[in-house]
Amino acid sequence: MESVIEPFGEGFVTALAPEFVLVIGLFTLMIVPNLGDAKFRIPLTQIRIPWFFGGKRGTLDSDPRLPGIFASIFFAIAFLLAIVSFLGGMNQTTVASGENVLLKVDEFSRLFELIFYGALALASIASINRLPATFRADRSASGLYNNRRQVDFYILLMTCGLGMSVVALAQDMFLLFIGLELASFSTYVLVAFLKETKEGSEAGMKYFIVGSVASGVGLYGLSLLYLWAGSLQFTDLAAQFDTSGMEALPLAGLGMLLVGFGFKVSAAPFHFAAPDAYAGAPGPVAGVLATASKAMGIVGLLRILLVVASPENSDDGTTVWLVALAVMSVVTMTWGNLAALGSTNPKRMLAYSSVAHAGYMMAAITAIGALNWEPAHVMDSKSASLAIVTALMFHLVVLVCFKLGAFLVLSLLESENGGHTLESLGGLVKREPFLAVAMFIFMMSLAGVPPLAGFLSKLLVIMGIVKAALLEASASGNISFSEIHWVWYLALIMVINSAVSVFYYLRVGLVMFFHEPEAGREGPLPKGNSVRLAIAACVISTVYFGIGAGQLIALCESAANALVGAW
User: Fold this and answer.
1) DSSP state, 32?
2) pLDDT tens sequence across 300-321
């Protein structure tokens, strides 16, 4: 069932219920922590009227945990509303103004919203106990963040969630870019939120400068596409590509847009700010960058390079498009793994690991482009494309579990000024057995070891790429190595890189289980029940989605079908 509604028309609030929950949450965070016993004096009189905004706050609204609790509740409600929309069949809704389609609510957009809200909810929950854990040695008023600074952190998180939602729902290139920038500006500040530290301020500055340049280049590419097509609607651009093919002007525009989204997914050579940003940002924020922010970039690549500019004819422009994407994916995954091998900072190692995962996903996108380039049979091509997109979305969902979980473990180590070297993980099994086992599970899942979720996600992606490579050869009736499409090599390189990555993931386990703790860090880590709860949720989902992922795969398949069916 599909319906079209006007902005603020009947059914508008219902269709965008998760987004409106975040808006309500933003206003709540702006108002509640600022309530107090302030009074307003009527001029020329001694009469004072309660004003409530400002003044001395009560016990409840001055609690530094209050903003985190509010933000976590609103993220959880938005997450549940997105899940509820899948029950009983998705009611696809299009928000249009006249002939211009602005937003579309379907399985594809809702699944990505689940990724965004889930990652942000876990980061919010993990940050509730950040104060007593981080500043346990200094309980003075100057040593603690008060909740008026705390509220800034969670307002930025919720603003980031709104921007990501717009990216998932957008059906217009300009609107997609607006959502991307709304989320990006929030993450720039979040990365530098610990401005008292040298690493935090340096990370924020580098991430902002590089991100601004990438956004500027992407915006210029957007202007070239508008100059060429006269519209930024996805449907209009797709129709223009169908009639005109890959000309020089739109190809240049797409290349510039690839710079903008390549930065968001940390693809080489646009990844240089990522290691510094991850290392200097708070652990939960780094986890959001490695999961939700990366998924946001993948949404842009899927929308633009596969829906808008899906290559259906074998011409020179198409060849350049696919070869450039393939080369970028190979360089990205190889560079990321090799750099992670030499990294001694766990957060930088995970940052380079995130770069490698971006290469894996770009290889899958390349395979989908190859299917549309030289399709042997339309039905077989659609089936293979559906399988790859399903695998890609499954990988993005489960990546939240083990990649974000690893950053949350490191955030606990940061609470005692650790987590910046591998040695700070030494003897973790003696100090906190649960955290050591959890971190080992996350590392093994990132390496692709069965039966964890990371193994299944990589397996599905590799199988999808191989299926795309074999499709052309099977159509000829004579399968031989020479007939296999060249995207097969992407799967091979992905397998080799995955094998290389096992070394630095196992190195973390070796340090935790067989090295002694650093001097002065023999005791348990600072308390933080909320962050441990978030880590436990990541562990359970990592194991569960590795052995019982049938429902999630079916959900990803329905979301992929909503995208593939729109081609």
Assistant:
1) G
2) 888 887 777 765 544 554 566 7
